[in-house]
């Protein structure tokens, strides 16, 4: 075992060897092979290429050198293409701070039975008057940056549960293709995290319809890990034990405290709202929602046609074939 594996338990070391092809005898060579590829992309500013940083990309791509490098390049390219998102990339930024305090994201205290961190989002908590969807994405990315420092999570990964209860049609109308594309590129294509499952619960019919729009932009591996449970929490419990879930998800624990993770990041600044007034609101993030840069969005310029959605019968949700896969 090298010093780069010092933070791993014996069980996780074995998991890294079996599932990720991590070999302590070749670890430094693996890292160097990825680092040597940096010169092939002079158009990208690689701000970090130290051993520990590159290792998380190797783990995210099961030690496939080229795939790990491609992810590393996309990580920095995403930040270059969306500079406004990362200008004030800290927990005390007004938009990020408010999103964090509203539970974007939340993190459960207990890991699941695979050692994965369980992240939770309560979609209806979004206060459109105080922060934007881009701020929520920034808060999630900032949180992942902090969490991925843990080598155990680099190996074991994450699970995400999104509760869509009381998420209104008006709120859903803000989920434009450009916004969704920005999120997909930031989370699926440009971040070194392993997501073992993304669970939708209590989703209304219009979220189900919206999912069909973004599905083509998701990788096959990602699609297989998305579970639409609706109101069927029993199917959720087959995958995540209720003993570690809060009562909102039919679990045995008390209701989730939305400020739990925010207090961890903000510490003594959690209760200081001096930066979070309307005059100091982060306007670049607002502008980013109007014109998001990824060129690929040219092929998808409008959200699901509201006229089409309004013509859909609300009962149609019950008639849709469930997309839950338990294999």
Automatic annotation (TrEMBL):
A Pfam family of the record is CRAL_TRIO
CRAL-TRIO domain mapped to chain residues: 96-257
> Which PROSITE patterns does this UniProt record tie to the protein?
CRAL_TRIO
Query: Where does this protein reside within or beyond the cell?
Result: Cytoplasmic vesicle, Clathrin-coated vesicle; Early endosome membrane; Golgi apparatus, trans-Golgi network membrane
Cross-referenced CDD domains, in alphabetical order? Answer: SEC14 (cd00170)
The question of whether DNA damage is a record keyword is answered with no
Identify the stretch(es) annotated as Disordered: 276-327
Q: Which GO terms describe its molecular function?
A: phosphatidylinositol bisphosphate binding
Keyword Membrane annotated: yes
Mind telling me which InterPro entries this protein's record contains?
Answer: CRAL-TRIO_dom, CRAL-TRIO_dom_sf, CRAL/TRIO_N_dom, CRAL/TRIO_N_dom_sf
Protein's membrane topology: Peripheral membrane protein
**Entry GO terms, CC:** clathrin-coated vesicle; early endosome membrane; trans-Golgi network
Name where it mostly resides. Answer: cytoplasm
Q: Name one GO biological process term.
A: lysosome organization
Which keywords does this Swiss-Prot/TrEMBL entry list? Cytoplasmic vesicle, Endosome, Golgi apparatus, Lipid-binding, Membrane
How this chain assembles, per its entry, is: Forms a complex with clathrin heavy chain and gamma-adaptin.
- What does the function comment of this entry state? Required for normal morphology of late endosomes and/or lysosomes in neurons. Binds phosphatidylinositol 3,5-bisphosphate (PtdIns(3,5)P2).
Q: Which PANTHER family match?
A: ALPHA-TOCOPHEROL TRANSFER PROTEIN-RELATED (PTHR10174), CLAVESIN-2 (PTHR10174:SF73)
Supply the name of the protein. Clavesin-2
Q: What gene makes this protein?
A: Clvs2
């Amino acid at each position: 075992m090298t010093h780069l594996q010092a933070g791993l338990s014996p069980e996780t070391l074995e998991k890294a060897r079996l599932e990720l092809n991590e070999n302590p005898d070749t670890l430094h060579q693996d890292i160097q092979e990825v680092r040597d590829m940096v010169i092939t992309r002079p158009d990208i500013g690689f701000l970090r290429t130290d051993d520990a940083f590159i290792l998380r990309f190797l783990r995210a791509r099961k030690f496939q050198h080229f795939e790990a490098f491609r992810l590393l390049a996309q990580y920095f390219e995403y930040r270059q293409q969306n500079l406004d998102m990362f200008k004030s990339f800290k927990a005390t930024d007004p938009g990020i701070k408010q999103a964090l305090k509203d539970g974007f994201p939340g993190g459960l205290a207990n890991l699941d039975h695979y050692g994965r961190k369980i992240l939770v989002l309560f979609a209806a908590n979004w206060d459109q008057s105080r922060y934007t969807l881009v701020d929520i994405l920034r808060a999630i990315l900032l949180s992942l940056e902090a969490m991925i420092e843990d080598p155990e999570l680099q190996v074991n990964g994450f699970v995400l549960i999104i509760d869509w209860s009381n998420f209104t049609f008006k709120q859903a109308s803000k989920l434009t293709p450009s916004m969704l594309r920005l999120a997909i590129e930031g989370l699926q294509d440009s971040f070194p995290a392993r997501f073992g499952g993304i669970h939708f619960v209590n989703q209304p019919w219009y979220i189900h319809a919206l999912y069909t729009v973004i599905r083509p932009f998701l990788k096959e591996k990602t699609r297989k890990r998305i579970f639409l449970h609706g109101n069927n929490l029993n199917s959720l419990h087959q995958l995540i034990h209720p003993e570690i879930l809060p009562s909102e998800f039919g679990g045995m624990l008390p209701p989730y405290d939305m400020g739990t993770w925010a207090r961890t990041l903000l510490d003594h600044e959690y209760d200081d709202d001096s930066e979070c007034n309307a005059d100091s609101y982060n306007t670049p993030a607002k502008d980013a929602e109007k014109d998001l840069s990824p060129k690929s969005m040219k092929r998808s310029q409008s959200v699901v046609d509201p006229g089409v959605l309004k013509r859909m019968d609300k009962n149609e949700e019950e008639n849709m074939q469930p997309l839950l896969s338990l294999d």
